[in-house]
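CHAIN AND CONFORMATION:
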Amino acid sequence: MNEFGPMGSAIFTPDHMKEYMLPAGHDPARETNPRAGQWDPRRMIGPFKPTRVLSIVGTNPGDYAVARGFSSALMGVQSDGLVAIRNAYVYGSARAYVYRSHSGRFGLVNSEEAYQNLSRFLLGGLRVEVGLHGLDFGNQSDRIWQAEIRLALRWIPVLVHEQTANHYCPVDLNAEAKELATPLSPVPLVTIFLQPREQPVCRYALDLKVISLKESGGILCFDDHLEQIGDWEDTLIVDVALDTEGTWRTVTWQWNSTPSRRIADQEELTNRLDWETENTSDSQWHVSIPVTDIGRALLGNDTRLELDISQWD
């Protein structure tokens, strides 16, 4: 690729990437990652803010058929068949992980998942950053802690965000507890863009599943492991209600384990977010939602979901 660049592939070589990714006037030799000692294209340079970027990360290499599957086999499971998960996002950007390959009939480009994420990113009215805070593994720090997360929107037949162990991309909770942003540990946990214009009440479901394995001498132990059974699992249901002008007025929530009937049959959720006491500015809010009693017993008494909500346009 470096020498000949067949079929235009030279655009992916470092020298060519520096030409079109670095702003004019920036010396490529000086724009380096201080840790690796070389330029890192995941780090945006210049006045354009990473918070204005959405990175859609594919996690399904199996459906990438280019080069008769050679590319997929070479890249391995933590990829979309062409790009590794660790390289598929911009530092500081919002991320959406979806189970799609790089391209093709089952690829990202033509997928419903990408469309739903992009439409909300480009046209949504609210940005919600959800973080998992207060994690305290105590005397269980010798365990490898992971979380699976899935984000669903009512009336949409696909998941708009999905990180699972089956797809080789669970959330690294050990890193999350230390607020270390890694390829498998977004900080915040997930960023959601709300586009509640078509319906007066929009319902969102954030499914959380915590898994742990004990590590001894660098080797994982499966003695007490039950495959597919999480240490704790629950789903946070959130309703965003709008006024007649299309702006939000109330947000209510409830854990799926608490009602005595199907959550789909429950028109109103039981808990209302208090905007008056949590208002940090005219257009930004910070609110907390505690996990259930079972979740706190496992993850720490202060474990909670923190939501940073701001106007988005």
